[in-house]
Structures are given as structure tokens and as C-alpha cells.
Amino acid sequence: MRPEILFPLFAPVTSLKGVGPRVAPLLHKLAGEKVRDVLWLKPHSLVRRTPALLSAARDGEVMTFEVVVEEHQPSRGPQPWRIRVADPTGWMTLVFFGRFADQLESRHPVGAHRIVSGKVGDDRYGRQMVHPDYMVSPEKREEIPELEAIYPATEGLPPRRVRAFAMEALERAPALPEWQDPAFLARERFPTWREAMARLHAPESEADLSPLSPHNRRLAYDELLAHQLAMAQRKAARRREPAARIPASPLSDQVRTALPFAFTGAQTRALAEIGGDLGSGERMSRLIQGDVGSGKTVVAMCAMADVAAAGGQSALMAPTEILARQHYETISGPLEAIGVGTVLLTGRDKGAVRARKLAALAAGGAKVAVGTHALFQDDVAFERLQMVVIDEQHRFGVAERQRLQAKGQAVHLMAMSATPIPRTLELTVYGDLDVSRIDEKPPGRTPVATRAVPMNRMAEVVGRLREAAASGAQAFWICPLVSESETSDLAAAESRAAVLRETLGPSVGLIHGKLPPAEKDAVMADFADGKLSVLVATTVVEVGVNVPNATIMVIEQAERFGLAQLHQLRGRVGRGARESACVLLYDPPLSEVAQRRLDILRRTDDGFLIAEKDLELRGGGDALGLRQSGFPDYVFADPFAHRDLIATAGDDARLIIARDPELNDQRGKALRVLEELFDWKAGMGLKDAG
Ligand code: ADP
Ligand code: MG
Fold first, then answer.
1. pTM, entire model
2. CA of 643 to the centre of ligand 2 (A)
């Protein structure tokens, strides 16, 4: 239940003065539906309204002048009302549009002294100021704030109105009980929450706008702690549910030793961590993070052997049919060899075949199910489902993952992701999971030779491609998502495929997001079987698809992709022992940052390092890219500027929950106010992995 002290902040924006039916939707769009959301609008810049001389006026700047009114030029037809004003160093025209303009003459008679403040324009009409922000007599100069915070605005709602609403929201903001540790506050020199809010809306200098200023750090820390707390509580709740204790078994050792290769150190470590979870009697919630091809699937396979040895069942779910099929091909042989029945269940299974598979799962004859969305359909039942493995976990919705887990009791969860997240951000994205990193590649892989090539040398690239294809090599050709519209991107990919067919013949395939799933699978299968030599694709190419014979990856307009994405695309080649190449085609000239990004990619193949460097280069500026990697949509916390606070908040939250799991002591009660203030619970389901 929401504490009463927060009621004023959770009132609708219409409770603010001047917010009626016209303004409310604008504020909703800009901020949100509650007073709290308006309180959380942040000024992005400052205007200093210190008077200057007209001779110093500069086009485009917000400036302030002390002037004398010299002449009124009344409006005629569509012409605005103009007032000529001057100081000893020059003159300018004030411009007013609108019907009330004729009051201007009585309010500002010729000869009157005025202070005017607003944006200076210098164009073919001469020097002017359209609708000054302020125009007051010198006695009323205190009506003009010396320093004014400028807020984001929207059509129909100018920055100054927004500021007025924010100030009113601030007046409504009560002092809240302190939820932070006093020693920590003192050490960081953090103000109270109320003081921090007040400073946010009344910055005293440019430094106050910086995310590194004490009040902004305080607000960021509050937000991070609220989020970390919510995740720590969820994790603790999951832990309290008793789950089947699954000991390490000889079966798992058997499958493992039967493999034609030895585990890497990182794989061994991950498997040991999983073993610890499964044997603990608590529900496992573990994410295995590792580049495409780092060997996550075989680790999962060993854990599934343990579950089977203990008499339980596991389900491995992949986002596409072709991926499910590949997983099945990887693990069914070794598992069947030790007597663990394994079935593949996809949307393609119909009639008697499907009935037979369902019966095997329901009766417990099959211990492992590999499949797609088909796995969580209502008619699928398990005898004793004890572990669920989700591949590419972000490709599934919470509800989908939960439907599968609901087919057993207190089911252990293992999620797998090939999207490397910088370590500093791991807590914000996966704070409610335990994370194992497979940060080591199996030996014997040849690094992919990566080159950046300007677009105007494309003919050369195509020529090489023809030679390679003639000698049996296969290539991916990726076209970027350029525009917002899928249709025009599709057109680009289609015309690229047509151009390549002119040179390379009919063995050029095309795959894109608009293709029905069955056709997508068919094209992918043709490519995997070697019937196509070049596969032109928009970015939909399934992450993780294994086509060992594909050795060339061409990425068009590489400068438009995020580093992590480029890295993942490149990861689709270099699977075998053969030499592979990645060509990054770009439109010259490259910006300096783009240049550095492509350089990083050329120099390293380590997904974690790339993610780390990417974050550094973006400085946290690329909100979209971050959101794609699962970074929460924070209001105050900045992934880069506040990276030190993320770890602290994580530790803090764990300690709090360990000492006071129900948040009942004095600080605990205040922390509940914090949690409600940020309301993480509402949006949290979306990010829930279990
Ligand atoms: P991921 O799921 O992380 O993308 P996979 O488990 O599918 O990776 O492994 C990719 C390929 O590498 C598979 O063919 C697998 O058999 C092989 N592989 C896995 N671990 C090793 C290892 N330690 N040494 C050599 N090959 C390995
Ligand atoms: Mg995989």
C-alpha cells in the first residue's frame, strides 16, 4: 500500500494549477500522468539574465538588455506589431504577433525604460527579439530571475510553462523520511532528498546541471537503490521457495567425457556454479552470459543430464525453429547415448508424431524436451519438470517464460544470453539473477579477419565474393535497418540481392523480417545445407545460427550498427577451423567516434571487452542502444556517469535485505517509501526473468 505521505506526488497532473483538459495531455506526453512525473522533469540548460549592451547582442542567444522605448510600429494586416528600442550602444526591434498587440503601446509608452530578455535574432529584418520572455520596468527587475533553468518543452507547452509546473510540483513535494545510511550521506556529502529535488529545479550554476553534482548523484543513488532493492527482494523471495535438490551425477560426467573436446575453464566454472545452485535446495535463477559459440549449450546439456539422473525433466526453449533444431542436433546424440530420452517439439509437429512426443513427456519416458514456443502450449504436460533452460532469453516475453515454468513446481531457471553486458551494468540488467560468464572461447577457432572498406570499393568486395563462392565458401550479406520503415529497408535488401545475383548467379538467397516464419526457416535451411552461397539478410538473421561453412560476413553501412550488434553479426562466421573474414562496408567519411568503434572491432574478438569499450565511447549517451541491451529506463541514473554508484547500490540492497528482509525497522520503513516513490514494482514484471 502506498504511504500517505506520497499521496500529493501521486495525484494526477490535473491537480496542478493551470493544468486543464488542454494542457494535461501535453504534460502526459512530456512527463507522465502524475505530479511526481512533473517533479522529475529535469532542466537541460541554464539561462543567465544579466543585462548586456546592445552592441554585444549575438544572434541566437538568450540575452537581457536595459533599453528605452523609441517607437511603436502598429501591426498592419498580417504584419506583427513592432517596437523599436535602444540603449546608448545600438537599437533593436521587439516583435509581437497576435490580437492583443495594441495594448502594447499603453503598457510600454515611448520614452519608458524597460528591461527586456529573450532570444536575439539577427536576420534580413535587422536585429530583433520576437516575443521577449520578459519586458519589465527597472523597478520590477526582480521579476526576472538572474538564472533560469530551461526545461524540455513540447508543441503547445513552452519551457517556461513547464518550469512553472515543475516548481509547483516541487512545492507539493513533502520532506520524506531519510532512507539512506547517515554515514554514507555524510561521506558523499549528499543533501536530503527534498533538498536535492529543490536544487534540481533551482540550479545555481552550470555545475549543478552535471550528473556528478552532489544532488544529482543523490537522486541517481536513490533510483539505483530502489531498483536494486526491488530486485534483491524478488531474488530473496524466489530463494525461499524450496526446490528439488539435484546432486551432481555420474551421468553428467559421462556425457561430458564423451564429447570430442574438453571444456574450457570458463565452461567448467559455469557448470560448477550451476551445480552449486541445483544442489542447494533453493530455486536456481542463473543467467549464462557468453558470446555466440562460447559453448553455452553443452554446459546446459550437462546440467540436464544431472536433472535426468535425479529422475526429473528439463526443457530447453529457443526462439526459432532452426535454433531449436540445432540445439537438438547438438545434445540429443550425447544424451541418448547415456539413456536420456530427448524429444524435439516445434510448431511443425502435427498429428500422431506430436501425440507420441507429448505422451513421452507426460509419462516421463522423455527426460529432455528441446523446442520452440510449442513447448509452453496448454496441451504440453510434463511428468516432473524441474529445470527450464531459455536460450536468447530476451527474445521471450515474461509471460511466455512463466507459462513454461508453470508446467512444473519451483522449477530451476537457467537463462542464456549471447549479448554481452559491461560488468558495471550487469547489476542493473540482471540484478535479480545470478550470473555466470563464459568469457573464454573454445580453442582452435581462427579469429575473423576484420576489415573496414569504403562503400565505393564495393565492386572489389563483390569480386572477391564471387571467387570465394566459386571455391565453395558461403557468405552472409547484412543490410542495415536504416529508416524507420521496414518496407524501405526491405526494398534496399531486395535490390542488393538483385545486384548480387547479376554477378553471382541464382545462388543468392534473401531473408528478412516480413517473411513468414516457415519461409524464413526454409531459406535458412537452404543456406545451412549449402544450397545457397550468399544469404542477403536484414538484421533478422537469427542470433546463434550455426552454419560452420559460412566464412564471410559482409555488413553494409556498418557505421550505423552498435558495436555489440556488429560483434554478434560477426560471430556467425569463424565457427569452423577455416579462415574467416568480416568486411565492414561504410559510407565515407567516417566520424571520429565511428572510426574508433570500427577499430575496436578490428582489434578484439572479446564480446565483454567490446561491450565495455562501447559504453566508454558512448559515454552513456546512446540511450536507445542501451535500452536494446536491457538497460532500464532510469530518470536520474546515468549508466556511465554513475557507474560507481551501481555497485554500491547493489551491495547496499543485499545488506539491507539480509538484515531486514521485510523492511520493518526504521530505515526499512523509509526504504518502503523510496520503493513506492520509484514504483519499480509496476514496471518490473517486464524485466522479470522468472
Ligand atoms: P553457444 O550456445 O554459446 O552459442 P554452443 O554450445 O552452441 O555455443 O557451441 C558452439 C560450438 O562449439 C558447438 O559446435 C559445440 O559443440 C562446440 N564447443 C562447445 N564447447 C567446446 C569446447 N570446449 N571445445 C571445442 N568445441 C566446443
Ligand atoms: Mg547458442
1. 0.80
2. 29
